[in-house]
């Protein structure tokens, strides 16, 4: 790891690891201010990088927020999580621009990285070329946690907008998850599945 670099994880994951809960538990405005600072970083860097990508956004940056071009992967679950995190901040402090950003992030995955036949988002892509990263799989793959992000994001945007298409994405992703990720014999869930739900390589 690089202690001077910046990334999706250091920005968006901070919202869910502690900041959102700290604000809700304490009502201390310092945490709300930090949430808004992270949201602005999302807007100014992650979201702002999207027009230059074939899919998703740049996830790795230098200290000064210059994109690390050596890192080309974008992860659909990260784009979806960013969408609903922005939506969650919008719930705390409504802002039409933030809501539009959340919708645009979600739409990027739905339009370019979502399986409209079987349901659920795909996994990882090269953001520059738009090519799906297969990781040795003979077929396109889906991951359990990225399904979760599509469910959460769809429900969040349905709550905020009332638009049925978001609920349809959440329902389709949940159906795929319940039908193919849950192990009916031993319990718990599988890590990865093929596009149609069959067993695939875990990595």
Question: Descriptors for this entry?
Answer:
203 residues, mainly alpha, two-stranded antiparallel ribbon, two-stranded antiparallel sheet, 53% helix
Task: Provide an overview of this structure.
- The protein is mainly alpha-helical.
- It contains six helices and six strands; from the N terminus they run βααββααββααβ.
- A two-stranded antiparallel ribbon has the order 1-2.
- Helix 2 (29-46) packs across helix 3, helix 3 packs antiparallel against helix 4 (96-112) and helix 5 runs antiparallel to helix 6.
- The longest helix has 19 residues, at 8-26.
- It is globular and about 45 Å long.
Shape call:
globular
Largest pleated sheet: 2 strands, antiparallel
The percentage of residues in β strands lies in: 5-15%
Structural classification: mainly alpha
Q: Return Rg in Å.
A: 17 Å
Mean pLDDT: 95
Give the strand line-up of the largest sheet.
1-2
Give me the count of strands: 6
Distance between the termini: 20 Å
Proportion of residues in helical segments: 40-55%
Uncertain runs with pLDDT below 50, 5 residues or more?
Answer: none
* Element string (H = helix, E = strand): EHHEEHHEEHHE
